[in-house]
Design brief:
199 residues, mainly alpha, rod-shaped, disordered C terminus
Length: 199
């Protein structure tokens, strides 16, 4: 189990897992961000730019909700792997950075008119979505820490209860024991099975 955790912790593997899940979700849903490409752009370049845009761009609140929902599972994976908010935020922003970087580079190079006329809108999308990713990463990590802390507290309380639980009582003198002695330390009578306290 520890070996698996170490493999998953490798950022490249985690990055690939995030994008496989994200891609499956977007492809199955048929989501597509509308781009008015410049004339003369090849189909291959259109496909690449469109494919990258579908990960990160939205036109309205409904599409924003869909994109956030698409990113939700990929965002949660580092939370469970690292359990530290700094590492989680860095990992999730790194995963978010790659499609953004290549989308802007390809769009500026092969569809400059659309890029130039829509840059403020596109950047506002990037800033908004990255802010949401940071909030989910931070909030998710803090919630997980609280849950783990609560579980540990409950576990320790249960151990303490078991530790101080009276298991046996001497039938002769009434001395209570937290263990299972063969003889009573007080009156030296033998403790028999009938002396056991029933819960």
């Amino acid at each position: 189990m520890e070996k698996i955790r170490k493999i998953i912790q490798k950022k490249l593997v985690l990055f690939l897992i995030q994008f496989i899940i994200l891609s499956i979700f977007i492809i199955i849903s048929g989501y597509s961000f509308k781009i008015s490409f410049d004339s003369g752009i090849t189909l291959e370049r259109k496909f690449i730019i469109q494919f990258l845009a579908n990960y990160i761009m939205f036109e309205n609140v409904y599409q924003l909700f869909f994109i956030v929902l698409s990113w939700l599972i990929p965002i949660l994976i580092p939370i469970f792997v690292f359990k530290k908010y700094k590492k989680v935020i860095i990992m999730n922003l790194t995963s978010f950075f790659f499609p953004n970087f290549f989308f802007y580079v390809f769009l500026a190079r092969y569809s400059f008119n659309f890029y130039n006329s829509n840059l403020p809108f596109l950047l506002s999308n990037t800033i908004m979505l990255s802010s949401i990713i940071i909030l989910i990463s931070l909030g998710g990590t803090l919630i997980l820490k609280k849950v783990i802390k609560t579980d540990k507290t409950l576990f320790n309380e249960n151990l303490d209860l078991k530790k101080f639980k009276i298991l046996y009582k001497c039938a002769n003198c009434g001395t209570e024991f937290k263990s299972k002695p063969k003889y009573c330390y007080n009156c030296l009578n033998k403790i028999i099975e009938d002396d056991q306290i029933n819960d």
